[in-house]
Amino acid sequence: MQLLETKELTKKFKNYVAVDHLNLTINKGQLVALLGHNGAGKSTTISMLIGLIQPTSGNIEFEGLKVNESKYRRKLGVVFQNSVLDNNLTVKQNIDIRANMYKNLDSSFKNKILNDLELSSILNQRYKTLSGGQRRRVDIARSLLNKPEILFLDEPSTGLDIQSRNKIWEFLNNLRKSIGLTIILTTHYLEEAEDADFVYVIDKGKLVEGDTVDNLKNKYAKDTLTLYSDHLKNIKDNLNQKIVEETENSISINPEDNNEAINILSKFKPLITTFEYQRGSMDDIFIALTGKEVK
Ligand SMILES: Nc1ncnc2c1ncn2[C@@H]1O[C@H](COP(=O)(O)OP(=O)(O)OP(=O)(O)O)[C@@H](O)[C@H]1O
């Protein structure tokens, strides 16, 4: 079911078109990624969707509500790229200030979030003393206090290590299941969009592609497995995959997924000297779609 739609959404800063006639559809309960490089227009799009800045032209529709209506704002949660929390206050104080802004706050939901995000033990610590991962978890908790229908995450894992990132996504995915939360995230990384139901690729404010992660990978950014061997003929004779590149001592193929790569490696283990596995990346998608290297 459709939750949010933009029609020809456009933002100009003087003569510069930051967002250019963007048509996006976000369905209820989906995780949707806006993928693009620095300056692509992702944050500007989010800012318009949350009512922080006015579009120059175009429309945003959310179940019949206008962006500037408080009823719409109450359905949103936002985690900005740069935290808006007070460095000198404790986690608890930061959370309570926000919580006090809401009438009829569901305190059992609040406690569940603090618990699930493992914030209970750092509630009395000042925000400025927290690690990057802890800060992000507090930012996310704060954005969810009102039990929003839709959560905006602007580059949520910039600067985070893999454990922190995984912890946050495990929590968010559970929340998607339990309360049907819709999430819109902006990111530079294809890996971060991995769990997304749908990805919009944006370049210079324009929509250049919209598809599922699997389809994008299949079309533009396949993983590549390169096998190095002194017995290439033997491998080639028994390989069912198409060879995409070949040298004197190596062949490269595009496995469908990790499992296929592992099966190929196991099958030819006695014949392989070594191997490389290169994941398809957002850069591959951009080069394929825009013909440009990443700056
Ligand atoms: N207030 C503003 N005034 C003038 N230009 C702006 C303003 N805000 C954004 N821009 C420009 O609009 C373009 C899009 O910026 P935006 O921040 O939306 O990109 P982004 O995709 O979010 O990039 P990043 O990944 O670096 O955050 C950039 O060229 C930026 O310089």
UniProtKB/TrEMBL annotation:
Q: Which Gene3D superfamilies match?
A: P-loop containing nucleotide triphosphate hydrolases
Q: Which InterPro entries does the UniProt entry name for this protein?
A: AAA+_ATPase (IPR003593), ABC_transporter-like_ATP-bd (IPR003439), ABC_transporter-like_CS (IPR017871), ABC_transporter_ATP-binding (IPR050763), DrrA1/2-like_C (IPR025302), P-loop_NTPase (IPR027417)
Coiled-coil regions listed: none
Q: Where does the ABC transporter domain start and stop, copy by copy?
A: 4-229
User: What superkingdom heads the lineage?
Assistant: Bacteria
Q: Which UniProt keywords apply?
A: ATP-binding, Nucleotide-binding, Transport
Could you give a GO molecular-function term held by this entry? ATP binding
Xref: PROSITE patterns: ABC_TRANSPORTER_1, ABC_TRANSPORTER_2
Task: Report the family membership.
Answer: Belongs to the ABC transporter superfamily.
Protein name from the UniProt record: ABC transporter ATP-binding protein
Species the sequence originates in? Apilactobacillus timberlakei
